[in-house]
Every structure is written in C-alpha cells, then in structure tokens.
Amino acid sequence: MLACLNVVGLLTWTVAADGAGVADVDWDSRPILQHRDFQAVDANGLRTFPTTGFPYRLRGILLNNPEDMLDSTPVTGPLPPFNLGAQWQVFVQAVEPGDYGGTAVFMGQHYGNLPQNFEDGQPDPDRSYSNAAWSAEMLRVNQDRATGHVFRAGDYVEIRAQGALAFGGKTNVNEEHFIESELDFELALITPGVGLPTPVPLLLADLWDEINDRVLFDPSRLAGGERYQGELVQLMSVQRIDDGSIWAAGNRVTVADVAGREFSLHLGLNPEFGTMLPPDGFFNAVGIFNQEASGGPMGPSVNGYELWVMDPMQISAVPEPGTFVGATVGLITVTLWIRRRGTKLHTVARQSRCSAA
Whole-prediction pTM value? Predict the structure, then answer.
C-alpha cells in the first residue's frame, strides 16, 4: 500500500514492503501490445483480451491533459456508494504501423465506495486513498519517473500496465480499483512534444448503422464507433439539438447532422466552455472518440459512443450542409465534401491520420 511523505512542502511517494511497485518491474522485458488487440471485443462488446499476462506495455500519443477531462482535486470522505471522489484519466492513441484506436488510463480516489470493496456491506475507507496519499499518486502519475517531465498532450509515451478492467465497452488500464501498489500503472516518456495526431475527419454518415439508426457497432473493430474509439477525430457538419441540456464545462449536449442523425458531445472541463456562446448553426468539433456503453458488466456494450471535446477552440462554425463545406485538416490539407441528400459523394483530399510517428 502507498505511503506519503511530506518533506519541506514537497510530496514524494514510496512503496511499503507489501507490494513490489511499478518501479521494480523490468519493463524492457515486458511485451508491447497493439491497442487494436488490447481493445478487442466480442459480438456483445465485451472484452476478449486475456486478463492474465500482465505487466504489459502500450505506446502512443497522449491526447489530453488530465485536468481538461476529469477533476482530480482530492475529496474528503466519507462519500456515498459508487462516488469515487477525485478522478484522473488520459487517453493514448496508437501510432505504430498497423495499429489503430487508443486506450484510456484511469484512477479514482475512493475505491472503497465500490461494492466489491465494501466491508460488512458498507464503504470501506481503508480501501480508498487519503487526500495526502492521493496527492502523492497524482504527483507520481503526472510526471515521468526518469526525467521528471510533466506529461502534456502531444507527448509520445509508453503506458506501463499491471492491471486493467473493462468498462462501458472498452478496456481501461487502471489499478483494478484497488490501492495496492502491485497494480500501479505509470506513463513513461519516449519523446516530449511530438504533437497531437491529425484528427480524422468524419461525418455521422460515415459512422452510421442505418438499419438500427445508431452509430454502427462492428465487433471486428474495422468500422463504425469501434474503429475510432480512443482516437482524435473531427466530427463534421453537426448542430445542437434543443433537448434541455446546458452548454457548460463537463456537460453532455446532443448534436445532429442535416439528416437528423443524433450524437453526444461531451464537453471537457476547460472553464472557457462556460464563457463562450454555444455554436449557432452547423459546426465541426475536434475531440476524443469515446464509448460509455450502458449495458453494465454483462453487456451488451454496443452503444454510448460520444465525442469528448477538450477545448472550445476545437469547435469551428461551417456553412450549412448542402453546399461545399471546407474543413481545414492540419495546416495545409483541406478536405472538400460534396453533400447531397445526406450522402457523402466525394473526397478531394484527406491527410494521413497522424502527423508524427
């Protein structure tokens, strides 16, 4: 279990004798997985990658700064069941040849509030991080152990995983909701500041299952929502639906394309979402393609796709579909779409998925 020391105001961390700790693993000897294999699912959207064989490594580009996605500010317990208090999460997108998709890395403060960690039917505070221990963990996971580099979106990193759980249709690297150090994960820096991958331009028509009137679920993960899960994409030519949702940091709002296909936009925690005016008319939005399926542990996990937008500056107005829509991708490549009766007819140019390998 982790212990936290406070020395002249600086948080450091150490590992007690009951756990090996992530620093003690010979990581160079551990397999490097492809994200496409790690995220494999069956016909019900449930994980098929083996639960054994850890530790593992995965590599890719860090897509978000953690503070833009979840609030990691420590929260004093006790809290009600299922409330994890502070949470931390990043996504890492595949860039290796032949690989695609990405993987979320997650941890929460109050694991004792989850039923599997209850003691005598009640939340167990001993299975949650104290505020001091949580702060020490945040110091550990937010910087590279070898160099002290503070991770930022656009870094090329290695995920070092000693455990993982399936949730909402994807496999998350995590501590399997325990605070024991032998399940710790870490990020390791490969190259800083490589830059974000070029977002894949997508229309809802590209993703849609017209028969079931929803985002296509393809268990082969070659099309639809599964193909882009964990990647940076640019959702093109959508507009807000007035469903009572509020345009504010941390909220979900509904958007639709000109044909009425509806989709969820998940706004990140950037406070500027609260100061900007909601888009009026059609717009493009760049974000992380995510899944939060509603089927529970036994599935099915074939729905719940969304776009998680980290920055208001990644939203840009476009002309109403039915005319030429120019969408700037990267710095110099423009994708030109011709729309007629809701069908994509032609692509003039499309830049490669990633600007850096």
Answer: 0.85
